[in-house]
Design brief:
The chain is α/β, with parallel strands linked by helices. Helices cover 28% and strands 16% of the residues. The protein has helices at residues 48-56, 97-100, 121-131, 146-160, 175-184, 201-207, 222-230, 243-251, and strands spanning 33-35, 61-68, 74-76, 134-139, 169-172, 190-194, 212-216, 234-238, 256-259. The longest helix has 15 residues, at 146-160.
């Protein structure tokens, strides 16, 4: 099993102790390896079965996607529409939880997961906290509901993880959602998700009072990691499935790695 909070905050699984970087940054309390959407490619994403799969592979931190139903219930789903990963059709956020909860969210992956249901955020929180596991919650708003979803996720996280030693890391591509989350619950840690690295990416992350940036693997290089650390930010990456690439990024001081290949790490 991975160490959930290693006593040495600069630990990573590939870097020798003599080369641990950025010792001047505050300790980073999260595990370095993160299971993408709960179970990577091994289980239907964002379902309880996925998180169980990730935990069975020794992962103690997970990434997942959170959005709001029409009645305000917060649940896990990556896409705006239901079509790819459920038996439903159309925009997920247009339905209330009563309709969403009856959908099959497992059959698309493989027959063994037939009948797996969508997962509410409160149910996930209970499951994670009972096992003292960690999570990166990506705020994934229905288009047009960025601020509402950001605020709602932050408020519910504060309630569901109240008293937790290490709260979830909130992330989003939506700067409006992150800004709303910061206004609602300023003490929760936040990360800006980037598909590319525009010239002002550091300034944008700092303006949102983020503690980290999560960069897209094909775009991320050693210089970006150094820039983040120089600005007091941690750098994470999505989605790396090649252990050799992981070792290269760890050698540059990467702080967290999201992977689909749970069985290769």
């Amino acid at each position: 099993m991975l160490e959930a909070v290693n006593p040495d905050p600069f630990f990573n699984p590939f870097l020798p102790a003599s080369r641990r970087p950025h010792a001047d940054l505050p300790p980073w309390p999260y595990p370095r390896l993160i299971a993408h959407r709960g179970g990577g490619k091994l289980a239907p994403e964002n379902t309880l079965a996925a998180f169980q799969c990730g935990a069975n592979h020794g992962f103690e931190m997970f990434e997942c996607d959170v959005k709001s139903a029409a009645d305000g219930a917060l649940f896990l789903l990556h896409d705006t529409k239901l079509d790819r990963t459920t038996t439903g059709k159309g925009v997920a956020g247009a339905l209330d939880w009563a309709a969403l909860s009856g959908l099959d969210a497992g059959s698309w992956h493989s027959p063994r997961f037939a009948g797996e249901r969508l997962l509410r955020l409160d149910a996930l929180a209970s499951w994670l906290r009972e096992r003292e596991l960690f999570v990166n919650l990506e705020i994934k708003p229905t288009p047009g509901l960025e601020r509402e979803t950001g605020a709602a996720v932050a408020e519910q996280v504060r309630r569901l993880w109240g008293g937790a030693r290490v709260p979830p890391l909130l992330s989003s591509f939506s700067e409006a959602a992150l800004e709303a989350a910061a206004q609602s619950e300023p003490d929760l840690p936040r990360a800006l998700l980037l598909e590319t690295f525009p010239s002002d990416w550091v300034q944008r992350a700092l303006a949102l009072r983020c503690v980290a940036v999560v960069g897209h693997d094909p775009e991320l290089n050693h210089a970006h990691i150094a820039q983040a650390h120089a600005a007091g930010l941690r750098m994470l990456v999505y989605t790396v499935d090649d252990p050799a690439r992981a070792r290269d990024l760890w050698s540059a001081g990467l702080d967290g790695l999201i992977t689909d290949a749970l069985d290769r790490f």
